[in-house]
Amino acid sequence: MRDWQSLSHVQWECKYHVVWVPKYRHKVLYSKVRERVGEIIRELCRQRDLEIIEGHAMPDHLHACISIPPRYSVANAIGFLKGKSAIRLHREFGRRGNGMYFWIRG
Question: Which of 3, 4, 83, 100 lies at a C-alpha separation of 20 to 30 Å from 49?
Answer without folding.
Answer: 100
